[in-house]
Amino acid sequence: MAAAHDPIPVEEYDYEGLPPNFSLANNMLAGAFAGIALKETKEHTVMYPVDLLKTRMQVINPSPGAIYSGLTNAMTTIARLEGFQSLWRGMTSVIVGAGPAHAVYFATYEAVKHAMGGNDRSVHHPLAAATSGACATIASDGLMNPFDVIKQRMQVHGSIYKNAFQCARRVYSQEGFRAFYISYPTTLFMTVPLTALQFMAYESISKVINPSRNYDPLTHCVAGGLAGGFAAGLTTPLDTIKTLLQTRGTANDPGVRSAKGLLVAASIIKQRYGYAGFFRGLRPRVITAMPSTAICWSSYEMAKAYFVRQAKETSAL
Questions:
Q1: CA 20 to 30 Å from 4, out of 21, 111, 128, 302?
Q2: pTM score of the predicted model
Q3: CA nearest neighbour of 270 among 30, 8, 259
């Protein structure tokens, strides 16, 4: 018979499986941490100018001052003619939405993944990962889409907006609330497969380079970067269509200004540039995606590992 003072056995938890008391709030905090880390590094520092270049390269019939021969030429031309600080135009818009959007994103991902049995480390679950990623995107993009519209309106050459608030107010007064969501169906049409591809690739790559699935910052970083670049490259055509719809209010071309959906925007791009037009901005998109997703996944996995460790310590008391 065991002595009364014998310690109660502590249940061992899988890092990937998550402990039963790992709450939705913890998932949202981990996601918010990842979102802030992602936006602060990608959107707000060294990678943001590359994202701006992608937007400008995807604009239909750009003004003469926005025609560039390459990434380096674009960067130096913008800095010389518009000022170095203009490379970061629009970044304040994504600051506001970064934390909440990623909190929703990762909380949804973990909830759906758990419901589909994707946390069973003994079995590979690419379908669970893909479905979880798709559901996470639908939820988070509904929150983030208006902020992305404002960001791209401020990124285009000759933008008249002084700040994100003024941009939001002008877009709303001139084009109505619908303008903030005109690209939402296209955004989902792009980001659902993008996220499904990214999560599936991340889980698959992680399974190969980190079969134990223990917390390992290096493998999380490598898997995240490769998965992000892979998914971003394949979905560039849809991103080009999204940019056309989100910046149509700044266009001088009547056809672009009146574009009302994915098929109309796609036909405009095909007519003006051929099929190659759908891959305008491919290089900066991939260059932006790889480090940002590497940082995002590394940050999320670090936060998740912290909360799992905290849960273990609490259960042991």
A1: 21
A2: 0.70
A3: 259
DSSP state of 12: P
Give dist(CA 308, CA 223) in Å, integer.
21
Can you tell me which residue has the tokens 């506001």? Answer: 96
Phi, psi of 274 (to 5 degrees): 75, -170
**Residue pair 155/94 in contact by the 8 Å Cβ criterion:** no
Tell me the H-state helices in 83-125. Answer: 91-115
The dihedral of CA 93, 285, 198, 137: what is its sign? positive
Residue 208, number of CB atoms within 10 A of its CB: 9
Residue 64's pLDDT is 77
Would you say 51 and 284 are in contact if contact means Cβ atoms under 8 Å apart?
Answer: yes
Predicted confidence at residue 9, as pLDDT, reads 40
Helix (H/G/I), strand (E/B), else coil: 10: coil
Nearest to 300 by CA among 138, 20, 109: 109
Query: What confidence score (pLDDT) does residue 37 get?
Result: 56
The answer to whether residues 182 and 108 touch, using CB atoms and an 8 Å cutoff, is no
Tally the C-alpha atoms within 13 A of residue 262's C-alpha that lie toward its C-beta: 10
| Structural tokens at position 97 | 């939405």
Give average pLDDT by consecutive 10-residue segment, the chain, 317 residues.
Answer: 44 46 58 55 66 89 79 89 90 81 82 80 74 85 92 91 94 94 90 82 90 86 94 94 91 87 93 94 92 84 79 72
